[in-house]
Design goal:
This protein is an alpha+beta fold and 408 residues long. 28% of the residues lie in helices and 19% in strands. The chain contains eleven helices and 17 strands. The strands form five sheets. An eight-stranded antiparallel beta sheet has the order 3-2-1-16-15-14-13-12, sandwiched between helices. The two termini are 30 Å apart.
Length: 408
């Protein structure tokens, strides 16, 4: 799918000269500076596009193009969360339901007490069961292997949970449920494989594989023709090289586009991080979100559902710095809560950057990011391919410069 024609930035309330500063900054600091291999940026207001740019090489000697297909990692999570809430709207599941209603394997799951490595885990029964809402807001007690801070995430690494080479989501659920959770559900926030578990619930409730469900109920209706878990052979030339940060070289090859792991169908479809997409496709998804759940006559969810999803659901109304056990507990996450699949701004001044209360957002580990500001009617989508996303503060820099250009 191609992107629509750019509007006059001035008619959308932007100063074109100030928008141009963003490209100059990205090129000088990140592309010419050898920090990113490439970058693509879309800034929109309402349904219109005010600014669009691509720079750098998709592969060595091949300039990045607008139709590039990016590994969007955790920007998959909002898609999976929207899919789950479609089932909530149909009365097939409720946020208050225990996950054992659909995944009885978790009836045996206990809270970590001790053990790990060569020592068997010792657990205790949880004070309350993991509920559906705990999966959506990451208060389940599950974790991620890449956090590398506990014996539990070490057990995740041993089983290869984030490689998606487990033979099916059912096997993943069985293995995951045999390990302890880190805390009583609902008492803290920990970034985790929770959204992969949401994907398993969608599969069991719908009777469809996750890729088929997404295609029928989200991607098809929205016209997202280039968003998928595995990149087909006739589109593989559009997949850029992907890098990992290196302290010496700055960038080291992680996944070459021509021989990418994303050219193969994964063992299971990761609702937490498996999708690839384009600027054009994700812009359509973001426009649907900004428009209250509808785009071009296709109703995906209701406005009330979206309002529920973008409201802070952290226990006690806290922010990530107060509730997170590990990642996202840093000071720059002050004023940021978490809804049902999205981060959400609950105290804009506390974030120490520009924006409004009610903005919702997320990103992926390859440094992709998006945010939607319903107050100023703004959409921002940034794509590149460098892991980890914490290597550079590019997201905050783009946001600051974007709002500095918004004058009307």
């Amino acid at each position: 799918m191609t992107l629509s024609t750019l509007a006059d930035p001035a008619e959308l309330g932007f100063d074109a000269g100030r928008l141009a500063r963003i490209d100059a900054h990205l090129k000088a600091k990140y592309i010419d500076g050898g920090r990113f291999p490439h970058a693509a940026l879309l800034i929109g207001r309402g349904d219109e596009i005010a600014h669009l740019s691509v720079m750098g090489d998709a592969r060595v000697g091949e300039p990045l193009k607008l139709d590039a297909i990016f590994r969007i990692a955790s920007m998959t999570k909002p898609v999976t969360s929207i899919a789950f809430m479609q089932l909530v709207e149909q009365g097939r599941i409720a946020l208050s339901d225990p996950i054992t209603k659909v995944l009885p394997e978790f009836a045996k799951t206990g809270v970590f007490v001790s053990g790990g490595g060569n020592t068997p885990f010792v657990t205790r029964p949880p004070a309350s069961p993991i509920r559906m809402i705990d999966l959506l807001r990451h208060t389940s007690g599950l974790t991620y292997s890449f956090q590398e801070r506990s014996n539990i995430d070490a057990a995740y690494r041993k089983l290869g949970f984030e490689r998606w080479d487990t033979e099916s989501l059912d096997v993943f659920v069985e293995q995951l449920s045999s390990l302890p959770i880190e805390f009583d559900p609902g008492t803290a926030w920990n970034y985790s494989v929770s959204t992969d578990v949401v994907g398993a619930i969608i599969e069991r409730l719908s009777g469809q594989s996750l890729d088929a469900y997404f295609a029928e109920h989200i991607f098809g209706p929205l016209g997202m023709v280039d968003t998928q878990f595995d990149v087909p052979a006739d589109k593989l030339d559009r997949l850029p090289d992907c890098y990992v940060w290196d302290p010496v070289k700055r960038m080291k090859m992680y996944d070459a586009g021509a021989a990418s792991a994303w050219r193969r169908k994964p063992g299971y479809f990761s609702g937490g991080g498996g999708l690839t997409s384009t600027l054009a496709d994700y812009h359509r998804f973001a426009r649907m979100l900004l428009n209250g759940g509808e785009l071009d006559g296709a109703r995906i969810v209701s406005p009330h559902t979206l309002k529920l999803m973008t409201t802070n659901h952290l226990p006690g109304g806290g922010d990530l710095t107060q509730m997170s056990r590990s990642l996202f507990s840093e000071a720059e996450n002050a004023g940021m809560g978490f809804g049902l699949g999205f981060g959400t701004v609950i105290d804009a001044p506390a974030t120490m950057t520009h924006g409004n209360d009610g903005e919702f957002y997320w990103g992926g580990m390859f440094s992709t990011a998006f945010f939607i500001d319903p107050v100023d009617d703004v959409i921002m989508i940034f794509m590149t391919q460098l892991m980890p996303s914490s290597a550079y503060p590019v997201r905050r820099e783009i946001k600051t410069m974007l709002y500095s250009a918004l004058i009307g």
